[in-house]
Amino acid sequence: MGFEFTFEVTAVDGKARNGRFHTPHGPIHTPVFAPVGTQATVKALKPDDLASLGATLVLSNTYHLYLRPGDALVRELGGLHQFMQWPGPILTDSGGFQVFSLSQTRKIDADGVTFQSHLDGSHHRFTPESSIAIQENLGADIIMAFDECPPPTDYAYVQHSLTRTHPWLERCAAAKTRQDQALFGIVQGGIFADLRAESAAFVTGLDLPGYAIGGLAVGETKTQMYQTLDATVPLLPANKPRYLMGVGEPEDLVNAVLRGVDIFDCVAPTRLARHGTAYVRGGRLNLRNAAHTRDAAPIAADCGCYTCQHFSRAYLRHLVKADEILAHVLLSIHNVHFLIDLMGQMRAAIERGELEGFAEAFLSHYEEIGD
Known about the structure:
Blueprint: E1 7-13, E2 16-23, E3 26-30, E4 32-35, H1 47-53, E5 58-60, H2 62-67, H3 71-76, H4 79-84, E6 90-92, H5 96-101, E7 106-108, E8 113-116, E9 123-126, H6 128-138, E10 142-144, H7 155-175, E11 182-187, H8 193-204, E12 210-213, H9 222-232, E13 242-244, H10 250-258, E14 263-266, H11 268-274, E15 277-280, E16 283-286, H12 306-310, H13 313-321, H14 325-352, H15 355-365
Parallel strand pairs: 4-14, 5-6, 6-10, 10-11, 11-12, 12-13, 13-14
Antiparallel strand pairs: 1-2, 2-3, 7-8, 8-9, 15-16
């Protein structure tokens, strides 16, 4: 089945823009935050929870689903959309980051990577061709090129990594057979502007439906991240979506949207929920703190999520301290709502031409409340 992936910019405010990326499972209005469903599930949330929260894009993980239950099984059962009962767009990463971050041992060569499973130590091999084949079995709307996520501050290593993985992108493009999937290329280069420019020139030289910025939020400072975005985003085509991989803290979303990024994903909202932490306008709220023992207020009085409309900080603290599963559910609902609502507020501000003022007001108050 063929499909024409198109992206249209609908409003511009400075470098920020609203857009619409058309996929076989519906349009994605950008800028957008995608909750992460690593194992074909966003932890503690049902698909209808995600829909009610306004999620329009969900990310799943190639490496994890390859190891279990197996990509061939997912294909046999109708693909990811049918398997996880999510009707909207899905993005799968290539497995590259997990191969390098989770595997017990790995060996990289010009052809691909041999690695050990973090589950049982069994040996496996990923190549650009096998990564694409796995993602075609999974059936996501957006798939990612297989590459290496190198240490961001080691210039010599990053430079060598580019010479190895740029040809992998060409092999990914050649291996792709499904016309109903959009392959995104990934710009690497660590924190080095010249290497980012080199990578962007190569990656955008292939006419792909979208482009990602990888290798950030992996150990560099916030200042280095923002400087790298300043150097990289302008090198990406204005008529294609720009995806900042693995970044989702509220202040990073605001700063990256200001710089022209369209798509984001991160495990942070559900991971923080499992640790008893909630996002609020001032930063993060640790519900384990004794100060909330008798607090009858919601997490945020102006929040419209189910959790804040029904439950007190005192009750949530009780659930967290008792290690009740409902704590994970309710805090995940709130945290995912917070980020999706933040994206909606930024889209509205861009439409009005007021994003700079919105961002200044948000960032000036963020992190007043710490962990």
